[in-house]
């Protein structure tokens, strides 16, 4: 049995000397040292040996195993070192090459304007209120003093889903929801930014989807002068301390009296230019005192409470602020356009 072990060692060492890959090395390890290998078979036959022979044969078997394992480990280490060297050579980085530029993102100009407007009104004590974009006809029209068949509904051609469900045409429904949720409590002082939808032909100044920001204040003794003072503070924060406003009589079903609000042209300072059509004024929003009927439908006694509301398009504000002449630039995802706002 000793001679067999010696012959097995020589055979194994000879085969190990001719291996050319890690896979061949692993196959030989299994062949000679595995559970079904010849070395294991020899050790299983030791039960037939005498008590004097077993320790001697056992020592020889252990020596044979140790020699085979040592050669395998040596070759395994050499293969691993070579593999590491090859990987390092393949993954070498030339630190003298120029770096790959990482494009800088930027806040979209519409979002930037909305955030700026929110900050201004938050500074004046307003809170931000939100509501669903898919709205009930009641909140979008009826609760705002626009009953069925009201002719003013034609001013806002709508995307109806059913007879009673539509894509909201304004963020005014948020005002109604806020008043009803407050259950007659005052004060209410909110702005409601969000997307709105109207059936419109897209061109340089119109879009079927746009962003609107509306405001609402309800309390005792709210007057038109409060509305004017609030809007004057707003436009001066937005466009500069020298900006002036004027209110022109207008009509909205949910406010009475109603007014369009103009600001002195930020391009020419009110002197007259192409942007303001040489009038010195630019219209930016609509406003007015909340209609008594709207207050009443939302749970407020119009004899005790009053309020004002206003609404503006974020796209129009952004176009005036940044000198953009085509509203479609906001939605076409043209990187050449968006990159202009990286550092603004």
TrEMBL record:
Which cofactor is recorded for it?
A: Mg(2+)
The record's EC number reads 6.1.1.20
Q: Which Pfam families match?
A: Phe_tRNA-synt_N, tRNA-synt_2d
Instruction: Enumerate the SUPFAM superfamilies for this protein.
Output: Class II aaRS and biotin synthetases, tRNA-binding arm
Residue ranges occupied by any Aminoacyl-transfer RNA synthetases class-II family profile domain in the UniProt entry: 111-340
Query: Could you tell me what the cofactor note in this record states?
Result: Binds 2 magnesium ions per tetramer.
Catalyses which reaction? tRNA(Phe) + L-phenylalanine + ATP = L-phenylalanyl-tRNA(Phe) + AMP + diphosphate + H(+)
Cite the entry's keywords alphabetically. Answer: Aminoacyl-tRNA synthetase, ATP-binding, Cytoplasm, Ligase, Magnesium, Metal-binding, Nucleotide-binding, Protein biosynthesis
Q: Which domain of life is it from?
A: Bacteria
Q: Which InterPro entries match?
A: aa-tRNA-synth_II, aa-tRNA-synth_II/BPL/LPL, Phe-tRNA-synth_IIc_asu, Phe-tRNA_ligase_II_N, Phe_tRNA_ligase_alpha1_bac, Phenylalanyl-tRNA_Synthase, tRNA-bd_arm
Listed binding positions for Mg(2+) are 256
Q: How does it assemble?
A: Tetramer of two alpha and two beta subunits.
Family, per entry: Belongs to the class-II aminoacyl-tRNA synthetase family. Phe-tRNA synthetase alpha subunit type 1 subfamily.
Spell out the protein name for this chain. Phenylalanine--tRNA ligase alpha subunit
Taxonomic source organism: Paenibacillus eucommiae
């Amino acid at each position: 049995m000793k001679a067999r072990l010696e012959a097995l060692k020589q055979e194994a060492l000879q085969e190990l000397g001719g291996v050319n890959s890690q896979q061949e090395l692993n196959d030989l390890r299994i062949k000679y040292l595995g559970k079904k290998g010849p070395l294991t078979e020899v050790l299983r036959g030791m039960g037939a040996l005498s008590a004097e022979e077993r320790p001697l044969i056992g020592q020889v078997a252990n020596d044979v195993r140790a020699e085979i394992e040592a050669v395998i480990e040596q070759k395994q280490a050499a293969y691993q070192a070579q593999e590491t060297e090859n990987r390092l050579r393949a993954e070498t980085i030339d630190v003298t090459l120029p770096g790959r530029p990482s494009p800088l993102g930027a806040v979209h100009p519409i979002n930037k304007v909305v955030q700026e407007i929110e900050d201004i009104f938050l500074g004046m004590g307003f809170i931000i209120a939100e509501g669903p974009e898919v709205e009930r006809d009641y909140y979008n029209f009826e609760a705002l003093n626009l009953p069925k068949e009201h002719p003013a509904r034609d001013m806002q051609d709508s995307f109806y889903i059913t007879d009673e469900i539509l894509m909201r045409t304004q963020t005014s429904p948020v005002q109604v929801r806020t008043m009803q949720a407050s259950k007659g409590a005052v004060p209410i002082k909110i702005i409601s930014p969000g997307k709105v939808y109207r059936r419109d032909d897209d061109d340089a100044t119109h879009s079927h989807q746009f962003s609107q920001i509306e405001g609402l204040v309800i309390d005792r003794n709210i007057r038109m002068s409060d509305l004017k003072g609030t809007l004057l503070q707003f436009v001066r924060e937005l466009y500069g301390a020298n900006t002036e406003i004027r209110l022109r009589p207008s009509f909205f079903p949910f406010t009475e009296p109603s007014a369009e609000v103009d600001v002195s042209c930020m391009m020419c300072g009110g002197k007259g230019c192409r942007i303001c059509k040489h009038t010195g004024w630019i219209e930016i929003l609509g406003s007015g005192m909340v209609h008594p009927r709207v207050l009443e439908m939302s749970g407020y006694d119009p004899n005790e409470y009053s309020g004002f509301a206003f609404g503006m398009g974020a796209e129009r504000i952004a176009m005036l602020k940044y000198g953009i002449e085509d509203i479609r630039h906001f939605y076409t995802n043209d990187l050449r356009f968006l990159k202009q706002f990286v550092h603004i």
